[in-house]
Amino acid sequence: MTPQQPRLVVMDVDSTFITGEVVEMLAARAGSEVLVTEITERAMRGEIDFAESLHERVATLAGLPESVLADVLAEVELSPGARELVAELDARGWPVGLVSGGFIEIVGPLAATLGITLTRANALEVVDGRLTGRVTGAVVDRAAKAATLRDYATTVGIPMDRTIAIGDGANDLDMLAAAGFGIAYNAKPLVCAAADAVVRDRLDAVLDLPVFAR
Fold first, then answer.
1. 204 an active-site residue?
2. How confident is the model over 90-149, as pLDDT tens digits?
């Protein structure tokens, strides 16, 4: 049997590649967790604009010391099967990318521990060792995630029809639609309805889908 040509697999991070939402973990240290969680849920369901929701949530983090980023990174937990999925894809020579509406200060170091070099996320503004409550640069929203998928595909030389995207919230919809195959993982109903496949519980369960057949 001829080995399958490599595919590019691009995943959302918060509540997909990892179990939680980093902005909520930061908000817990700022005393704004209840408010931030409510805004996150509304954004994930597609009820409010993601960029607007991000700015609202990040604003509540103003004044936190930069050191909380390392604290939160140490508490991040990979989703069940995430490490195994990356290991299997690496063994096949299939490139993996992460794109997040969260923060590069967490996504970057996390990706590095797993040998993932394709990463994009929002950057938190820090002045005099404290978070300002703002992000720098363009927000990684729905459109940006889809554009990032295309950028990654160009970088690794894999056509778009051989890309696979995995996500859970409304911010992932454009990326799932742009990919050759879109997977909803532990996802909100509107994402499940839009995806080509739905997977729950373990992330490496995606390997049972025909699109991953060797």
1. no
2. 999 999 999 999 999 999 999 999 999 999 999 999 999 999 999 999 999 999 999 999
Q: Distance (Å, rounded) from C-alpha 114 to C-alpha 63?
A: 31
Rounded Cα distance, 121 and 108, in Å: 8
- Of 12, 172, 174, 204, which one is the catalytic site residue? 12
Annotated catalytic residue, options 14, 141, 174, 204: 14
pLDDT value at position 44? 82
In this structure, the dihedral spanned by the alpha carbons of residues 167, 172, 178 and 183, taken in order and rounded to 10 degrees, is: 20
Other beta carbons less than 10 A from residue 77's beta carbon: 9
Helix, strand, or coil (residue 100): strand
β-strand pairing of 130-136 with 118-127: antiparallel
What burial letters (b/e) apply to 127-147, b meaning 16+ CB within 10 Å? eeebbbbebeeebbbbbbbbb
Report angle CA 113, 53, 124 to the nearest 5 degrees.
Answer: 40
Angle at the Cα of 168 from the Cα atoms of 13 and 82, rounded to 5 degrees: 45
Q: Is the pTM of this model over 0.90?
A: yes
Residue count (the chain):
214
Q: Is 201 left (phi over 0), alpha (psi -120 to 50) or beta?
A: left
- Catalytic (active site) residue 201: no
User: Residues 172-181: pLDDT tens digits?
Assistant: 999 999 999 9
